[in-house]
Structure formats: structure tokens, C-alpha cells
């Protein structure tokens, strides 16, 4: 299944998670911004959706909007891979970024076991 197979809400959710991880170290670097822009283009967002994503790059999404329970089971691996990509794009993964990614992966695994 390709990224374009995500529905509109799932595409925005993926980008919300990616943007939130770009903010983990409290700074969205140009390489992270460029990654998000490329991902948004690949997901074929409309203009309103692009504006939402730009908003998340200007200010991080609220914590409750990036609840792992919102991630559709069939797309969990895709979300993790996209997040891994954004945190690695600048050439360094901070301990905090690594810790947050590990927490998300563990939470998604626990959700998988519950279903």
C-alpha cells in the first residue's frame, strides 16, 4: 500500500505526527521543513491542507492531536517510518527524539496487541 492510499484524514494525521516529531528538539530545521514539504506533495494535499501543515511547522500540534490511538492499525508501520525519516533528515537523532520515537513505537505495539 502506497502513501497515496491513505484517505484525507489519515494523510493529515500522518503529517501532524511528522510535524510534532520535527518539533521534539524545539526547533524545526530547514531539512525537516523540506522533508515535510516533499511528503505533503507526495500526499497530494489540497491548499487548505497545506496551510494546516504550515501551521504545524510554525507551532507544534497539540499533544492530544497526536494520540497514538488515532493511528489506523494498518498504517502504523508507515507512520513510524515517516517519523524516523523526519528525525534523521538533519543527520542527527537526539536522545530525546530517539526516546520519543521508541515510546510511540511501544505504544503502537501495545495497541496492536489489544486488537
Describe the structure.
The protein is mainly alpha-helical. It has helices at 8-22, 30-42, 47-58, 76-88, 95-114. Helix 1 (8-22) packs antiparallel against helix 2. The longest helix has 20 residues, at 95-114. The relative contact order is 0.18. The mean pLDDT is 93.
- Binned, the helix content reads 55-70%
Low-confidence stretches: none
Sequence of secondary-structure elements: HHHHH
Number of helices: 5
Give me the Rg, rounded. Answer: 13 Å
| Major beta-sheet overview | none
Find the count of extended strands (DSSP E, 2+ residues): 0
Mean pLDDT: 93
Q: Beta fraction of the residues? A: under 5%
Structural class: mainly alpha
Terminus-to-terminus distance: 21 Å
Note the overall shape.
globular
Q: What's the SSE blueprint?
A:
Blueprint: H1 8-22, H2 30-42, H3 47-58, H4 76-88, H5 95-114
Helix pairs in contact: 1-2, 1-3, 1-4, 4-5
Which features does this protein show?
115 residues, mainly alpha, 63% helix, 0% strand, globular
Quick synopsis:
It is built from 5 helices and no strands. The chain is mainly alpha-helical and 115 residues long.
